[in-house]
Amino acid sequence: MLKIAVPNKGSLAETAAQMLHEAGYVGRRDPKELIVADPRNGVEFFYLRPRDIATYVGSGALDVGITGRDLLLDSGSAAAEIAALDFAASTFRFAGPTGVFTELEDLADKRVATSYPGLVGDFLAASGVTADLIRLDGAVESAVRLGVADAVADVVETGSTLRKQGLEIFGPVILESEAVLISSPTNATGIDTLLRRLQGVMVARQYVLIDYDLPARLLEKAVALTPGIESPTVSPLRDPEWIAVRAMVKRDGTNHIMDDLYELGARAILVTPIHAARI
Ligand SMILES: Nc1ncnc2c1ncn2[C@@H]1O[C@H](COP(=O)(O)OP(=O)(O)OP(=O)(O)O)[C@@H](O)[C@H]1O
Ligand SMILES: O=P(O)(O)OC[C@H]1O[C@H](OP(=O)(O)OP(=O)(O)O)[C@H](O)[C@@H]1O
Ligand SMILES: [Mg+2]
After folding, report:
1. Among 105, 151, 198, 278, whose CB has the most other CB atoms within 10 angstroms?
2. What is the residue-averaged pLDDT of the chain?
3. Which among 189, 104, 185, 119 is positioned nearest to 155, based on CA atoms?
4. Would the CB of 90 count as within 6 Å of ligand 1?
5. C-alpha angle with apex 147: 144 to 151, nearest 5 degrees?
6. Which residues span the domain enclosing 82?
7. Which superkingdom does the taxonomy of this entry point to (predicted)?
């Protein structure tokens, strides 16, 4: 049985559970369940705090897990990132009161509040800047206003939490983070199937199928607009002057492609979602 660690709470939990559900795995029915067996798929799920997942997977107690890249690096665990999962994208940044800090070196001997002392400590050490790290559990943006720190280092998505606290980002990007699949150092058997299934879910979310009819002489120009992943399917129509084309296209920008195809001379342009995929 492949032992899989899944976030039980926080920003990653809902999307992680949804992806596993779409990938055909059994989920928990009750949010208090901590372990769920899925013998049909040969896996067992352990619902854990996202911050602890890298520790369990790095120690080999569990085989794989879903967590954030920032949490993985902060933990210093021996687990390895094997795939990005296309959700919970954020950047990890320094921020201070508006107008006070401009560059990393301004942090020398200052107090920096963070929930990620491992990640921030490593970054400062690699940059040769010495600062005093204040470890907080969350809501670190309040630390400056409340006087326990001069600056913060935290997850930034839209930046609205920082702005509301009168802070602005400065200095280099510490990390580009997102949800990732991590593996224990002893690459367990069965990871490949899990990874392929999750990649299938990502593809089904990112792509749609486009079908259209086209005068055959326009095929090369149309294929340049919809190259597909391998190569588009081209089928004959009853009218020998016309063909039908089917290809996968990125969901974003589908309407632009439809406009361009119509302009070119394609007709009966249809877009359908992909329910599941193995690429
Ligand atoms: N606003 C956000 N946008 C994108 N990712 C985020 C955001 N907030 C947190 N994350 C990501 O979620 C992970 C943190 O998990 P955690 O469980 O601490 O989430 P949380 O929402 O901060 O929960 P908690 O309430 O326990 O602090 C990290 O990988 C972090 O990058
Ligand atoms: O740039 P934004 O879109 O504002 O998002 C970033 C905020 O979201 C997370 O907070 P969370 O809600 O997890 O609270 P926490 O700080 O207590 O973990 C993160 O820690 C930042 O504070
Ligand atoms: Mg948080």
Report:
1. 151
2. 97
3. 119
4. yes
5. 30
6. 2-87+178-189
7. Bacteria
CB 116, CB 142: distance < 8 Å: no
pLDDT tens, residue by residue, 138-188: 999 999 999 999 999 999 999 999 999 999 999 999 999 999 999 999 878
Atom 30 of ligand 1 has which residue's CA nearest to it?
68
Please give the Cα distance from 153 to 169 (Å, whole number).
9
189, 218, 240 — which closes off a domain? 189
Sheet with 43-48, edge to edge strand ranges:
35-38, 43-48, 2-7, 64-68, 179-183, 80-84
> What pLDDT, in 10s, does the model give residues 85-141?
999 999 999 999 999 999 999 999 999 999 999 999 999 999 999 999 999 999 999
Mutating to test ligand 1, I would choose from 49, 75, 155, 164 the residue with most ligand atoms within 8 A of its C-beta, which is 155
SS3 30: coil
Confirm or reject: Cβ of 70 under 6 Å from ligand 1: yes
The two tokens of residue 150 are 């001069």
pLDDT score, position 187: 78
Question: Ligand 2 in contact with 229 (CB < 6 A)?
Answer: no
For residue 173, the model assigns a pLDDT of: 98
Tell me what pLDDT residue 152 has.
98
